[in-house]
Design brief:
The structure holds two protein chains of two kinds. In chain A, the strands form two sheets. Chain A has a six-stranded mixed sheet with strand order 6-7-8-3-9-10, sandwiched between helices. In chain A, strands 2-1-4-5 form a four-stranded antiparallel sheet, covered by helices on one side. Chain A has a single domain, classed as P-loop containing nucleotide triphosphate hydrolases (Rossmann fold). The longest helix of chain A is centred in the last third of the chain and has 18 residues. Chain A is globular, with a radius of gyration of 17 Å. Chain A starts with a strand and ends in a 6-residue tail after the last strand. In chain A, helix 4 crosses helix 5. Chain A is an alpha/beta fold. Helices cover 34% and strands 28% of the residues of chain A. The longest helix of chain B is centred in the middle third of the chain and has 46 residues. In chain B, helix 11 packs antiparallel against helix 19 and helix 28 runs antiparallel to helix 29. In chain B, the strands form three sheets. In chain B, strands 12, 13, 14, 15, 16, 17, 18, 19, 20 and 21 form a ten-stranded mixed sheet that branches. In chain B, strands 6-7-5-8-4-3-10-1-11 form a nine-stranded mixed sheet. Chain B folds into four domains: 201 residues, no CATH class; 181 residues, no CATH class; 229 residues, no CATH class; 159 residues, no CATH class. Chain B contains 30 helices and 21 strands. By secondary structure, chain B is α+β, with helices and mostly antiparallel strands. In chain B, 61% of the residues lie in helices and 15% in strands. At the A-B interface, helix 2 and helix 3 of A face helix 18, helix 27, helix 28 and helix 30 of B.
Chain lengths: 229, 850
């Protein structure tokens, strides 16, 4: 599903920083993978490259059979909106829109008819357990609820790939566990390929596969311990 | 200072573009102020220099307004024992036939006595010719030119110079060349000296002089001699030092100076707004930074000083750039002002160089800095009040608290009531200005609230147009009322100005056209120059019967127009045969009985005054005007007030018989000619030129040509208002760009998320375009509404303080309709740059952006 061949990413600032170096990785359809490693090891960069938010300095990335490298911006965006759902640490909900509107945005951007958008948004909010909070603004939700809303938005077109950057990083332990449960649930029900960048050992070990990065290289790739957070 | 370097400089450097846009308001304000005043002062300075240089060693000058006086006055002045030397002078500005030279100032002097006063510094070799004045005098075509003029036109002794005179175009012979110094550099070197008696003849001045220049004997006090001559000649004469004559110029050009002040005040006012807006945003964005500083021990005073320091810096940089731009503007405007003063006010002066006044430059800089500091005062105070604990927490700061909004609304309401009260109880001009200022203030205070309401109302529309982009654009504006209202207020103010000026222009055009059709009804005008305002040449009265004799001419009316001092002000007098005038055209009266007033005026028992004179000078029907003439003071009542736009400062209509008798002047500036039914304008014009054109200089203008000429003058005058409009629109565009730039910085993350969840670049662009268009639309709606109010005040101020025009209120719908696409286009164009920068940034950084 996701294939990386000799992928490197170098940032040219005042100093040259190599964030990823010759990463080779293959993630199969329906896998749930966690990416761990110390700060600055290249986890988020890897996720951004897979999500098409950033482009590699060298190497090839293939998602669901389509090669990302060399795609023009609009095609990259189309690929992203059809195949990838993002979940952020700080939720990134639009503060002026209520839950249903926030979830609707990706569908509006695709030009779906209004009625269908509404049906899908309600269905998703029910799925993540926010059926009773549809008209609430982000300000009126708890941290966990906001992340649920963000997950619903990421699922809006049932994308085959779900990328989560520290999804529980901004939540207390209990809420974090709830969110992880939701993601696992979604993974089980929808069969999406899930990639989670995390610092949390419990979160990491709950995934089927744990990839450890250090200084931009994959240093370990093993099966998860099957812990449930 | 160290805080400024450590804290402010990195921030300024990071937001350099926004900073530059912000100070652009100050740059423009200072530039317009300095530019217009410098250009004006340069012309004034050139005029003064000309007066000084021509004056030579003259200590006092005797003149009688513009009418000139009889030759006999010279003997009376010379008979005063304290007068050492007195010499007569005639000045005339004449068009030369030489290519590229334009006008030359002819100084008619009495060669026998004049060299006691002026040193001609003739080039060696030629001195002999003029040293014997008899030779010069014996040949009436003699002139002395300056060496600058001679060099420019390759003239030598004996060269011929063509000039248009009363006797048609004539060739004059150069019989002397002055060295370039003193006198010869007056009027930019375009100066020629001629014998005074020859001047009288070729310029149709009769046996009259314009002026007597004199010096007093050693031991006599100039002030005493001045009083003595004034006492002897009576109030119709002015006895002044040469330098005092510059003052006349100032009083005449004061309307222009006032307009310049209003324009620059407006630019600065909008500039102040931009600065306020930027500082307010800057304080908001730097809250956490301020919080950290406060947590580290910075006092409120230090924080306030930091922001005030930034504003002083902004003011200084803006003013300095403004000064440079202003000097450029002055250079560009020099020619324009010269011709404006020449054509509208009848003053001939040319300035080739601009003269910068250090005091004026300093004043402009101080003005810019003060504007900036005043604008930053409230944001700086807000910065000082930041609570460190709150500031270090995450949250939204752009929203105004309900309390702040309520206080604003209440204040605005109270101010609006005061403004209306000023209008209702307006006893003085001051109250009209106060009413205007208060209404503006109330509008500004209400801007955030009203702008929010309008955006709220537009949200469904935007949503309907583009569900995602439209909603986001509207929400972005609603979310940050401070950011939005700054740009909206700047736009509102400038559009209000455009509407007010547009309405005033339209109303003035209407009134002037109306007047033209009533008052200017002769078929032909016979004038001494192409422009009706040049009064240097005059026709003899005897030309009237000659014109009547031309076949096709039914009626001829001679008119003498001159500036005469009344109540301490030089005022235009129109001396005409009022009975004949009233048979052809009845000027609509605004006060007085038509039949009665024309009867009294034609009998010489009263005068008629123009409506604008009545308004500007506060003269009413029945008031008695004391008019000093060479034959004593005339006491004439005002029998009627009529609509007449002969002069911006107002005019007085007098029967010519009275003028002839009291001023001993039978000359005429203008003949109004009416044709017999069926006669062709072109044929009669040709016949007049055939009969009289060879004998004397004359211009036959058809009614259409005169109308076009007057409309062109009016356009030239309104040219200044177009500059105001351009400044206003430019500053408004800067405001929108500034707001959008800030808005995009604020929303980088939001826009990043939008792209991350699948927003295409074009969709992001459209969000920003829609945001700009909404700001434009809201600004338009508020601006057009405020403009309606400002137009009312504008008409009152023009009516009562500037030009005395009584104008009807009519909303300029065409201009408003035209503004809609102009502003929306400007808004869209302003959005292109920011939109591109929004879609081209790094997505990863945008998502991490804090």
């Amino acid at each position: 599903m996701i294939d990386l061949a000799k992928v490197s990413k170098v940032f040219n600032g005042k100093r040259q920083v190599t964030a990823l170096e010759n990463v080779e990785l293959s993630i199969g359809r329906g896998e749930m993978v966690s990416i761990v490693g110390p700060s600055g090891s290249g986890k988020s960069t890897l996720l951004n490259l897979i999500g098409g938010l950033d482009t590699p300095t060298s190497g090839k990335i293939t998602i669901d059979g389509s090669l990302l490298s060399g795609l023009p911006d609009d095609d990259l965006t189309r690929m992203r909106r059809d195949k990838i759902g993002f979940i952020f640490q700080f939720f990134n909900l639009l503060p002026t829109l209520n839950c249903i509107e926030n979830v609707s945005i990706p569908l509006h951007l695709r030009g779906w008819p209004k009625k269908k958008i509404d049906e899908r948004a309600r269905e998703l909010l029910n799925l993540v357990g926010l059926g009773g909070r549809m008209d609430h603004l982000p300000d009126e939700l708890s941290g966990g609820e906001r992340q649920r809303c963000a997950i619903a938005r990421a699922l809006s077109v049932y994308p085959p790939v779900l990328l989560a950057d520290e999804p529980t990083g901004n939540l207390d332990t209990h809420t974090g566990a709830d969110i992880l449960k939701l993601i696992r649930d979604v993974h089980a029900r929808l069969g999406a390929t899930v990639l989670i960048v995390t610092h949390d050992r419990n979160v990491a070990e709950s995934c089927g596969r744990v990839i450890t990065l250090r200084d931009g290289r994959v240093v370990e790739d093993r099966a998860g311990l099957g812990l449930t957070a | 200072m160290i805080l400024l370097k450590l804290i402010s400089w990195p921030y300024i450097r990071k937001h350099l573009l926004r900073w530059m846009l912000t100070i652009a308001g100050i740059v423009l304000g200072v530039a317009v102020f300095l530019g217009m005043h410098t250009a004006n002062q340069s012309v004034l300075y050139a005029f003064r220099q000309t007066v000084d240089r021509i004056a030579g060693s003259t200590q006092l000058q005797v003149s009688a307004s513009e009418t000139g006086f009889d030759e006999s006055v010279l003997e009376r002045v010379q008979s005063v024992p304290e007068v050492r030397a007195a010499a007569p002078v005639i000045e005339a500005s004449v068009n030369t036939g030489l290519k590229g030279q334009g006008n030359i100032l002819i100084l008619g002097v009495d060669m026998t006595g004049d060299r006691n006063l002026r040193d001609y510094e003739l080039e060696s070799g030629e001195a002999g010719i003029v040293d014997d004045p008899l030779v010069f005098l014996a040949q009436p075509d003699s002139i002395i030119v300056t060496d600058t003029f001679a060099r420019q036109n390759q003239l030598g002794i004996g060269s011929k110079v063509p000039m248009s005179t009363m006797e048609g175009e004539k060739l004059f012979t150069v019989r002397g060349i002055m060295k370039s110094s003193g006198l010869s550099s007056a009027f930019g070197g375009n100066l020629a000296i001629m014998d005074i008696y020859a001047t009288q003849k070729v310029f149709g001045r009769g046996r009259r002089f314009d002026r007597i220049d004199l010096t007093v004997k050693d031991g006599a006090r100039v002030e005493d001699v001045k009083k003595k001559i004034e006492g002897m000649l009576g109030p119709s004469f002015q006895v002044e030092s040469p330098s005092a004559r510059g003052g006349q110029f100032e009083s005449i050009s004061h309307v222009y100076a006032l307009t310049a002040n209003i324009t620059s005040a407006f630019a600065l006012f909008i500039g102040m707004f931009l600065i306020y807006n930027t500082f307010q945003i800057s304080v908001t964005q730097r809250r956490s930074e301020i919080g950290i500083l406060r947590a580290l021990g910075a006092t409120r005073g230090q924080i306030r000083t930091l922001f005030m320091g930034e504003s002083v810096l902004a003011g200084l940089i803006g003013s300095t750039l403004g000064v440079l731009l202003g000097i450029g503007i002055a250079r560009l405007m020099l020619g324009y002002i010269g011709s404006l003063l020449g054509e509208v006010f009848g003053i001939a002066e040319k300035a080739k160089e601009i003269s910068t006044n250090p005091a004026l430059i300093l004043f402009a800089i101080v003005l810019g800095v003060i504007t900036s500091v005043v604008a930053a005062f409230i944001p700086a105070r807000n910065a000082a009040r930041v609570d460190p604990v709150q500031a270090l927490q995450k949250g939204k700061y752009q929203q105004m608290s309900a309390g702040e909004n309520r206080v604003r609304r209440i204040t605005a309401f109270v101010i609006a009531i005061l403004g209306v009260a000023c209008l209702v109880f307006r006893q003085s001009h001051g109250l009209v200005y106060a009413g205007d200022a208060l209404t503006l203030l109330a509008a500004l205070l209400l801007t955030p609230t009203v702008a929010q309401l309008v955006v709220q109302a537009l949200r469904p529309l935007l949503r309907w147009v583009r569900p995602v982009e439209g909603t986001l654009a509207a929400d972005s504006l609603l979310q940050a009322p401070r950011r939005t209202s700054g740009a909206v207020a700047a736009l509102m103010l400038s559009l209000a100005l455009v509407v007010a000026l547009g309405g005033m222009t339209r109303a003035s055009y209407g009134s002037i056209l109306n007047w033209l059709s009533v008052a200017l009804n002769p078929d032909l005008f016979i004038s001494t120059s192409e422009s009706l305002t040049t009064r240097g040449f005059r026709f003899p009265e005897s030309m009237g019967p000659q014109l009547s004799g031309v076949s096709g001419v039914a009626d001829v009316q001679g008119v003498r127009i001159a500036r005469i001092q009344v109540r301490g002000m030089q005022t235009i007098f129109v001396a005409a045969d009022i009975a004949a005038l009233s048979r052809r055209a009845t000027l609509p009266p605004t006060a007085g009985n038509t039949a009665e007033m024309y009867r009294l005026a034609s009998q010489g028992k009263a005068v008629l005054i123009s409506d604008n004179y009545a308004l500007l000078r506060g003269v009413k029907l029945g008031d008695v005007l004391d008019i000093a003439s060479p034959r004593g003071v005339l006491h004439l009542p005002v029998a009627g007030v009529v609509v007449d736009y002969s002069d911006q400062q107002g005019s007085i209509l007098l029967d010519r018989s009275v003028y002839k008798r009291y001023w001993d002047d039978s000359t005429v500036n203008l003949f109004r000619v009416f044709l017999t039914p069926g006669a062709s304008e072109t044929d009669v014009k040709r016949r007049i030129l055939e009969a009289l054109g060879n004998q004397r200089r004359l211009f036959v203008l058809t009614n259409r040509e005169v109308r076009q000429y007057i409309m062109r003058l009016t356009d030239q005058w309104f040219g200044i208002t177009y500059v105001q409009i351009a400044v206003a629109v430019l500053v408004a565009v800067l405001g929108i760009v500034n707001t959008l730039t800030v808005s995009i910085t604020d929303r980088r993350r939001e826009l990043g998320v939008l792209q991350a969840v699948g927003g295409l670049r074009n969709q992001i662009r459209r969000t920003i375009w829609l945001e700009a268009l909404t700001i434009g639309l809201v600004g338009l709606i508020l601006g057009l509404a405020l403009g309606a109010l400002q137009l009312y005040f504008g008409l009152r101020i023009t009516g009562e303080d500037l030009a005395g025009l009584r104008l009807n209120y009519e909303y300029p719908y065409e201009i408003s309709l035209m503004l809609l696409p102009v502003i929306l286009l400007a808004a869209f164009l302003s959005a292109i740059g920011p939109a591109e920068s929004a879609v081209h940034g790094s997505l990863v950084e945008a998502l991490e952006y804090e």
